[in-house]
Amino acid sequence: MKSYDVIIIGGGPGGYVAAIRSAQLGMATAVIESNHLGGICCNWGCIPTKTLLKNAEVYKLIQNADKYGINVENVQVDWSKVIKRSRDVAKRLSKGIEYLFKKNKIDYIHAKGEFATITNIIATTDDGEKVEYKAKHVIIATGARAKYFPEMEIDGKQIISYKEAMIQKNQPKSLIIIGAGAIGVEFAHFYNSFGTDVTLIEALPNILPSEDEDVSKELEKIFKKRKINIYLNSMVEKIEKLKTKVKIHIKDGDIIEAEKVLLSIGVKGNIKNFGLEECGIAIDSGWIKVNDCMETSQPHVYAIGDVVGQPWLAHVASAEAIVAVEHLAGLHPEPMQYNNIPGCTYCHPEVASVGLTEKAAKDAGYDINVGTFPFRGLGKSMATGDTDGFVKIIYDSKYGEMLGCHIIGAEATNIITEAVIARKLETTHYEVLKLVHPHPTLSEAIMEATADALGESIHI
Q1: Rounded to an integer, what distance in angstroms lies between the CA atom of residue 210 and that of residue 202?
Q2: How confident is the prediction along the chain (460 residues), in pLDDT tens digits per residue?
Q3: What is the DSSP letter of 35?
Q4: How far apart are alpha carbons 346 and 261 in whole angstroms?
Q5: What is the pTM of this model?
Q6: Could you give phi then psi for residue 378, rounded to 5 degrees?
Q7: Side-chain-side CA neighbours of residue 51 (13 Å)
Q8: Which residue pairs from 240-247 have beta carbons closer than 8 angstroms and sit at least 24 positions apart in sequence?
Q9: In 73-201, where do the E strands start and end?
């Protein structure tokens, strides 16, 4: 029986990062993965979806080229190439991870992994062959999968998940998306950009319900202007499948029809059929229970990424991977903290945030100063012609601590990093205001919103 210092079950953004860090620290490492390396992020999530969104951005830019003095006629979309480009990018990324494994002398076992005992892992190949391996430490990185309503199961044809939404052979003429979180909103933007009649249904009062209310309302206004239909405070009662369409029955009595429906109501952890419960690994509400160093209830067994619960973000999985590996290696890493994790939504305009919303800050008892600055007030935004949105920052008025930053606008997912660093370093509003920002840039909006919070705004 072959032995390893570390065996990782799952090769997504948590698993493959854990493997590389483990190998860097000199440990014999293996990854057991039944699908493609890179997990949901590289193959079906973060990267291929952003590839599709870039296609949509290019198409919309060409459609509006006349405002830049460029006349383009007879613009046509080759849908098969739109989809193919996304899949090609995913394949290249997965191959890139295979290269990194070879470079770092990591064994890649293409099989399904499950626990025989706490220290022994069985790898079952597609043809049923079983091989058992021994490990000093095991890291579970099995991820999560799409949820669905009871009796409204995904069939991959009329009722689809994000996976099928990425590989539609023909562009649907109409699409209903149930769930207006990040995934639902991104697909609404993508399909609407190419001309699909899109309807968003959300059970809560706002789209992107976890974001600051001002940001959610701004995106709702922009989406409605683009003719995206939005139903809020709406619970789906039944999905009726007909021959060429689906009917969505909403509890208030409304019935909406479309060619297809995309379920985007969250995910559930991949915890079944791995032998977790048989080995006494504690599960809490469908997620593996871990401490702040990613240890499970069993010694020498760690869990990282989506399988341990929210936030379901690739960059969180990778950060947890580093903490887990360095902890099992005895390096005493800083434990995981989740109060400074940026969240990003890659629709247009983009949405990004970190820290507390205005409501959460007030509910926590803070006396706050709030500043906002619209992108239309920036020279760079006017130059690019992308003026939608704003930056909103919440500061503690007593100590000047940045409690939260919320952005809707072009490049929001890049700009947010400044706020993440500022919060990590406990930077005050005075320091942000006095930091000289380059001009013309979009990041000036951080400085301008801070000035507004202090009543010192210059440009608005």
Answers
A1: 12
A2: 899 999 999 999 999 999 999 999 999 999 999 988 888 777 788 889 999 999 999 999 999 999 999 999 989 999 999 999 999 998 998 999 999 999 999 999 999 999 999 999 999 988 889 999 999 999 999 999 888 878 788 999 999 999 999 999 999 999 999 999 999 999 999 999 999 999 999 999 999 999 999 999 999 999 999 999 999 999 999 999 999 999 999 998 899 999 999 999 989 999 998 899 889 999 999 999 999 999 999 999 999 999 999 999 999 999 999 999 999 999 999 999 999 999 999 999 999 999 999 999 999 999 999 999 999 999 999 999 999 999 999 999 999 999 999 999 999 999 999 999 999 999 999 999 999 999 999 999 999 999 999 999 998 8
A3: S
A4: 21
A5: 0.94
A6: -100, 140
A7: 22
A8: 241/155, 241/158, 241/159, 245/158, 245/174, 246/158, 246/159, 246/176
A9: 107-110, 112-115, 120-124, 130-140, 144-146, 159-160, 174-178, 197-201
Contact (CB, 8 A) for 54 and 8: no
Q: What is the separation of C-alpha 341 from the centre of its chain, rounded to a whole number of angstroms?
A: 12
Query: Phi and psi at residue 433, in whole multiples of 5°?
Result: -65, -40
What is the Cα–Cα distance from 371 to 387, expressed in whole angstroms? 18
- Token code pair at residue 339: 């109060």
Q: Indicate the pairing of strand 343-345 with strand 350-355.
A: antiparallel
Answer whether the bond into residue 440 is a cis peptide, omega within 30°.
yes
DSSP 8-state code for residue 337: -
- Residue 153: what pLDDT? 86
For residue 289, what are the CA distances in angstroms to 37, 215, 308, 316, 321? Answer: 25, 33, 6, 16, 15
- Tell me the angle at which helices 412-424 and 444-453 cross, rounded to the nearest 10 degrees: 60
Q: Give dist(CA 190, CA 54) in Å, integer.
A: 9
Q: Under DSSP, is residue 217 helix (H, G, I), strand (E, B) or coil?
A: helix
* Distance (Å, whole) CA 132 – CA 323: 27
* Domains along the chain with CATH numbers: 2-146+268-328 (3.50.50.60), 159-265 (3.50.50.60), 349-453 (3.30.390.30)
What are the residue numbers of the active site?
439
Written as six digits, the tokens of 329 are: 């290696």
The token pair that represents 231 in the structure block: 């139903």
Amino acid sitting at position 154: I
Give φ, ψ of 74 to 5 degrees: 55, 50
Q: Is 389 left (phi over 0), alpha (psi -120 to 50) or beta?
A: left
Q: How far apart are alpha carbons 380 and 74 in whole angstroms?
A: 30
List of E strands, 153-221: 159-160, 174-178, 197-201
Residue 330's CB is within 10 A of a number of other CB atoms, namely 7
Q: Among candidates 243, 94, 249, 228, which has minimal Cα distance to 174? A: 228
Q: Which residues pair with 69 in a beta bridge?
A: none
